[in-house]
UniProtKB/TrEMBL annotation:
Occurrences of domain Glycoside hydrolase family 31 N-terminal (ranges): 73-303
Record-annotated Glycoside hydrolase family 31 TIM barrel domain positions: 352-680
InterPro entries noted in UniProt: Gal_mutarotase_sf_dom, GH, Glyco_hydro_31_C, Glyco_hydro_31_CS, Glyco_hydro_31_N_dom, Glyco_hydro_31_TIM, Glyco_hydro_b
UniProt KW keywords: Endoplasmic reticulum, Glycoprotein, Glycosidase, Hydrolase, Signal
UniProt-recorded name of the protein: Glucosidase II subunit alpha
TM spans (from-to): none
GO cellular component, one term: glucosidase II complex
Family from the record: Belongs to the glycosyl hydrolase 31 family.
Species, as recorded: Clydaea vesicula
Annotated compartments: Endoplasmic reticulum
Amino acid sequence: MLPAGYFTVKEHEFKKCRQSGFCVRQRAYSDLVDLKKEPTPYKILRETVSVQKDNGVLTCEVLNQLSNIKYNFKLEALENQTVRIRLEEKDPKKKQYASVGNFSLVEEPKSTPFKTYVKAKSETEFSILEFGKNAKMLLQENPLLLTLKVNEVSVFTFNEKGYLHYEHHREKATVKNSEEPALKNEDSPGMEEVLAEELSEKEKLEKELKEKLEFGMWEESFEGNTDSKKYGIPEHASSFNLKNTRGNDVAYSEPYRLYNFDVFEYILDSPMGLYGSIPFMMGHKKGNTVGMFWMNSAEMWVDIEREVELKTRAKQTVTHWSAESGILDLFVMLGPTPREVSSQYTSLTGKPALPQLFAIAYHQCRWNYNDEADVKEVNAKFDEYEIPYDVLWLDIEHTDGKKYFTWDEVKFPTPQEMQNNLAKTGRKMVTIIDPHLKKDDNYYVSKEAKALDLFVKNKDGGDFEGWCWPGNSQWLDYTDPKARKFWAEQFKFESYKGSTSSLYTWNDMNEPSVFSGPETTMPKDNIHYEGWEHRDVHNVYGMLQQRATFEGHLLRSSNLDRPFVLSRAFFLGTQRYGAIWTGDNFAKWDHMEASVPMLLTIGVSGVTFSGADVGGFFGNPDPLLLLRWYQLAAFQPFFRAHAHIDTKRREPWIFGEPYTTLIRNAIRSRYRILPYLYTLNFEANLHGWPVMRPMMYEFPEDYFVYDMGDQYMLGDTILVKAVVNETSPSVKVYLPQGKWYDYTEFNAIDRPKDGLINYDTPTDKIPIFLRGGSILTRRERMRRSSSLMKRDPYTFYIALDDLELASGKIYTDDGHTFNHLKGSYIYSEFEFKINGNSGKLSSKNLLVKEFGASKVTKNYFKNQDVDFGGRLERIVIFGFKKPNFKLVEVKVENKILSFKKEKNEVFVIKDPAVFIGEEWEISFKFE
Ligand code: NOJ
């Protein structure tokens, strides 16, 4: 039985800004600033400024001239075109949480020297500090104002509008409105009556605003002379380009909220918080991309306001951020390209873990597969219908009374045998392991955790108790290193009875979801390790569970096997520990549509391995929706079908023909591109580039795509657009400048001047295009799972651009260990060129500096010293300019290769018998 009350959570049960004290006060402060047009009261105390040029650090004190409170201010030039801005109260009455960097940063960032430092002559002029590649900081002391410039273009301004408002801690009794207003649906947080008649409109407003004011944080703005777009701050079920929440043309009356929640039946097109929070934002305009994040794990609200600059008529976007607690610790990454921003950002917060090959294949999940017989049958059906799949998932019902790390002995009496049975065909199993632990003295995990005193405490110091799936439960305090170690140890094979090395983990409900708690989570005054309040660490909690699980996987395999952990909650740095998914969506067309901008946003915010429940979690999809979802998600990073316990079965064969064949084809299309996807995941691991990329990311100069969140690039080669309704026979797609090919037939698309085409979408395809100029590597032989394919040969798809050039890369390794770090990998680049009547396809090995030289470049197939294949069995080439082009000879060394011409001027060269990872040239002669 599900706990009463859980299934009634609705949007109105979550706080609005007007019900959150600090949000009200922050908004009121900025409104008041706008109204009064008075300068910010914050100024740098000139005599305190100290610059360590060689370390790239400026420190000083800042004074709030109204409250007389002093702050420590630190400005640092970091390596990789990054600036860190830190502001914290000098003598706080209560300590402010400032250590989330221990969790979010890979290491303490290194600074880089200032190249020049020119001190301002007076406090109203600018000091100039140059650093990095053509980057500079311009700092004005009074009022406090900071501008960052790259190549003389200002890309970021801090406190330009004077919204900075850092509330110092005060005792409750002396502060009006300092209590959080009760969670009720009222319009005002209890303001006093105003003597309206006696006041002018402006004064009235000012008085109102002042009354709303008590505490808040800071303001930042990116400014520029073109309309810069803003992306990021997941997770919201909203557009890719962030919408206005303040000023004119307001799309949302509420700011975007960042607070990890278990929102039941979340609504679309809303700024309300969801399961994860990443306080990262990307700003983009032609020629320039910047990124920033505020390293703080407390609740945040972010207002977005686009305004027109009167003199130039240009637009700029001001974003106004508030956090409930912690300090201001801001990082700005200066790009100037989206790729550079990703790489700078993930140098700080960590590169995405390289997933195992199986993890990027297809996953079959439902709440629940009922028992071992059910698992066996589902597994067998995949084979019967010749549909590949890699992982079968077990939800909460597999446990003994929702006690994680246990099995329901009646339904799952022989879990190891069950896993080994799947493993015979290279398949894995995932079990769900949630963070709430049943309060039960007979449950060994709870008992030991209690004995070790590892639970989160309530405000009175006792172990916090709340309601979740198992009934009364307790939560490990993952901010405590002892608790993380304890948790990691639970995954050892001797601890987790019934587990095998092919079992991986799903961490759900880790926002944390507490059915009996305020807004379905923990009370903010719960107490964590070292006495910090839950309010300080709320948003990092779930990530720390995923981290401890990840560490548990490493532990159980003695660091030999790459972990796979799926988490629902996420935060700054999550990418280091595994995948996330977008939680409980619906079996509805608009939810499938919404998955695209949601995943794009999550991807640019560093979490490159993400997906949405295929088919939709709640409700029953009709077969066409299910099919369209498969076709789309086959081209998204994490590909898992999942369904709520109350839904009807919907495995790929359930709806019969033609759907079984069409869904089979969609899943197979995923398996074909696994080599490409694996390469993209490797590039994510190396550089932080998203696997699923917004159009602006690949075409940063094309203004037309800046707002585009409904089509995307999978890597730099494949363009995808969803079919989002059942009726329209075609879909409008925008193809940026350049050459494009239909993915199924490799027909060159006749691109109109405006780039907009109508693409027919019969049930067997959605709009997918191959970018001219690329070489896509696929594996065409279908097997039961990805690991059975790992020695299979490859096929190249060479899609020529207008200059008849193409290039591509491939990365591969054994797909599951860390041996690549010791050189057991292949990273190769291929290039095709035409010169007059001859052409050349060449293969070159690339060095991955981080992994050392590749050990598998010479004769490795003869030695069989690596656990993966590399033979090229076919080359498909298309896009020659001249019609009726005649290919007369293809040769590798002295061997003539056979080839044929298919329809649409597509040439197929058979068995070139070369290997990726070796260097070679294939020559082409034409007439
Ligand atoms: C909520 C999760 O979002 C969903 O995927 C899962 O099936 C249920 N919890 C039950 O564990």
